[in-house]
Structures are given as structure tokens and as C-alpha cells.
Amino acid sequence: MRLLPCVKSYDEGTDHSKHIDREIKEWIKTYNEAIKLLLLGTGESGKTTIIKQMKILHVRGFSHSERTAMIPHIRFNTHESIFEIVHNMPVLGIGIQNPRNVRAQQYLLRVGPEGLKEYTEEYFDNVRDLWQDGGVRECFKRSNEYQLIDSAEYFLDRIDLIGKEDYVPSDADILRCRQKTCGIQKIEFKVKVPKSMHGGTQEFWMFDVGGQRGERKKWIQVFEGIDAIWFVVACSDFDQTLREDHLQNRLKEALILFEDVWQSRFLLEAGLIVFLNKQDLLEAKIKQGRSIAPYFPKYYHFEAVGDEYTRTKLFIRSLFVNLTTKRRERRDVIASPERFVVLEASRPRECYFHFTTATDTHNVRTVFRDVHQMILTHMLSSIGVY
Fold this sequence. Notes:
This protein has 14 helices and 6 strands. By secondary structure, it is α/β, with parallel strands linked by helices.
């Protein structure tokens, strides 16, 4: 009998499996390269705080020298807080309640907005007395009517500690310290990947760019190669105006900016995740009796289950969700350095929303874990694995 040569039959399932294996190998090769995340949002939305959280969670935190380097910035934050309050008291028609504190008020006004090179015991004594004054507290409660940093109460409550000669900032102090971001900041870190998603570690590069109007023209420099956009919104800013434009509501500015990012053709390939940030401050404002309705009248007709805070945060989310389903007419697009309008993206996209408190390390850890898995799942699904 003549033996026929062995011919391997074609198995479509096996071939597809091998194809997937090759794709996985290629993906793992790319996987060793950094996933690039870009933080966008208006000024003081909390972007830099998230950068600091990544350092705490994934880069061994802050060294002693880094902590001591923050002392001048924290003390200046404390000074600008009490100075802005005292400076705005006459504007709002609020007087010092304890006559003995008038001298302290005059002292702070003489120091001026720039503060001191070296903060003395006399300085801290005056700040302490003023912060305990009823008139100062009344002016603080109306801080949405002028420009005051979010961490003012936090630092002024810690004035005794901040004034000590041996003061070393804690993680919480550093997270709340405000420094205006100019230019582009970058942090690199690695994160373990679940075994269910092929294990190993993934390197991340995270970029933070200034959110003030004058800084936005620099954004386009870091658009190329971005895998995901984290758009950060300060939800508690619903009753405040911009530092650079006292006629523009901060939350309305965030909505305008988000629409530009959503429609940008340069960011079409990037995943988009919205961090509805400063939930702690939003809840505190609602408990104080402040309402978003005077600034966003549509709130009067918004229906949602829950208390006033829950209703408010869901309403804010709906404002951004609505923009993801809206098509903008070209005539609405106004070119300017503040609005990097770059043609409309027509391809369907997904947008994910998270309620966050950037100063809460546990909250950021949980959200980042979810976002990390979301990004990896998206990458694997693009090659047909998930």
C-alpha cells in the first residue's frame, strides 16, 4: 500500500487562537510602554492634587526634604487665606466683632497680600486672634463672593501647628497646599496588573497642565499619544467665579471647556473619564443651605431620588452627560487662545463619570483602581480579547 504524505488539515478555530496569541504578544510588547494620562480642567479643579496622590500611592510618597520644601508654600496659603478674608470684610460690610482684634486686622493689612519672608511669633498670634473673631468667621462663610482658596479653613484651623518652628507638613497638608500650575508637569509611576489581565506591571505617565485661561494654549503640546483624558471638575464651584474673570461662573466655564475637549479631533482616540471632584466641599455647602438653583435654573425642574446633596451632584453630572450627546454647530465655535477648538469629532465615544474627593487618598486609590482596569479592558477589547 502506498502511504500518502501527512497533510495537516486547516482548523479555523486553532488559527484564530494563534492569531489572538500573536496579538496578545504584540499587545504585551506595547504594554511595556507607558500609558499616557492627561489631566485637564479649569484652574483649582484639583488636577495637581491627583498628581500628588499618585506620588503617595505609587512613588513612595514625599521625602523629608520635599516636605520641608512645602513649608513656605503652606504658610503662604495660610497667609493669603486670612488676608483675603480680612481684606474683603469692608467690601462686604462686615466689621471686627472683638475690638481687641482691630489692631490684629490692621497688622495683617500692613503685611499685605505678598506675606512675609519669615513668619514670626507675632504674626501667628495675630492670625490666631483674627481667626477666632466672629466677624472674620462671618466673612469666611461668604467666601463664594470673593476669591478664597478651598483649603483656607483647613490651614487656619491648624495655625498652632503650622506656626511651630519644628513644623513638618503631613500628607494631608501637602495635598491641600495650592500652587498655581504653570507649564506642564509630569509624573511617572508603575502599577501592578491583575493576573486575570495577564499580570506584570504597567508604567504610567501622567501630565498636568495649568487650567487657567492663559495656560490652555499650551495644552495642545501634550495631546499627541494620550491614551486617556482625566477631566477634573470642581463641583463645589457652582456659586463661585473665575480668578481671571469675575463675571464668569466657574462651573459654567468647566462645561464650556469640557465641550471643547469632548469635540476635539485631536483627542478622538483617547478615553475620557470625568472626575466630578470636591464632593466633600459640595456636600458641606449644601448642608450650609446653599443651592445651585440660582446659578443653574434648570435645577428647579430636575428630578432625582435622594437628599439635596445627592440631587445636586446628580444634576451636575447630568449637565456633562448632556454635552456628550449634543452636536455643536460650527458657527458656535469661537477660536481663541483659551478655546483650543479643533474641529468636531464625529465618531461615537464613551465617557465615564466618577464622584471624587481628590484630597481623600482612599477615595483616589479606589477610583484609580477602577479607571486602571477600565483602560486595560479597553486596550484588550481593541484586539478582540475582551
